[in-house]
Design a protein that fits this description.
The chain is mainly α. It contains ten helices and three strands; from the N terminus they run βαββααααααααα. The chain has helices at residues 24-38, 53-68, 74-82, 99-123, 128-138, 147-163, 165-169, 174-186, 190-198, 205-216, and strands spanning 2-4, 43-46, 49-52. The chain has a three-stranded antiparallel β-sheet. The longest helix has 25 residues, at 99-123. The two termini are 30 Å apart. Residues 1-11 have low confidence and may be disordered.
Length: 217
């Protein structure tokens, strides 16, 4: 379903899961982050539509936000627009290999993304309270106690299961896959668990069995 693309022209993929929202601040935010994500040099094709990796990622996360909560609070919606803004400019290999290097890269990338989001949301005329709530959600502050942060985390995790888990599992030992599935599952709420279970039928049977074992464990 998903493939790298080199030849076909890119088409715009909407990251706007609330196209009926006429708030000029929302419209400005959608336009600003669409511009950032369209600058990603990495192309991708899904279901015949060629776009950028960043546009595809943020569109999918935003759609999951709406599926999980059609009345999602604005910080969750804005966080979905901005979650990995311009991460393509922040390569993983700029940091040492291994777990500690990965954690340093993730933390530094998260702070940069939150700073960029703050600039764009201020330009869109959002108030300071909304901007701070959005960046807190992006940085997973109070994840265990904030239902808005949990909503965004659920959307991110379910999208991973749907779009990346099969590729991640390819060529890896089953135990390594079970470990990442268990860690992902632990970060999700009950609503996220239900959504993930609902899409398991899209995965190969052997991967479904592995996910089930990881969750049970």
């Amino acid at each position: 379903m998903l493939a790298a693309a080199t030849g076909p022209p890119r088409m715009t993929l909407s990251i706007d899961a609330w196209p009926d929202d006429a708030d000029p601040r929302w419209r400005a935010a959608v336009a600003a982050f669409t511009h950032h994500h369209a600058a990603d040099p990495r192309p991708i094709t899904r279901d015949g539509v060629t776009t950028t990796v960043s546009l595809d990622y943020h569109a999918r996360v935003s759609l999951w936000i709406r599926r999980l909560d059609p009345a999602a609070p604005i910080p969750a919606r804005l966080g979905a627009l901005a979650q990995h803004v311009r991460r393509f400019e922040f390569p993983r290999d700029a940091y040492p290999a291994g777990g500690p290097g990965y954690k340093r890269w993730r933390a530094a990338a998260g702070l940069r993304q939150a700073e960029l989001a703050r600039v764009e949301l201020a330009a869109a005329a959002y108030d300071e309270a909304t901007i701070t709530a959005t960046t807190d959600v992006m940085l997973k502050k109070r994840l265990a106690h904030d239902p808005v942060a949990a909503l965004l985390e659920d959307a991110v995790c379910v999208r991973f299961v749907q779009d990346e888990l099969a590729l991640f599992a390819a060529g890896r030992e089953p135990e390594a896959v079970r470990t990442i599935v268990a860690k992902t599952w632990a970060k999700m709420s009950e609503a996220g668990h239900r959504a993930a279970v609902g899409i398991l039928g899209e995965l190969p049977p052997d991967l479904v069995a592995l996910v089930s074992a990881a969750v049970a464990g």
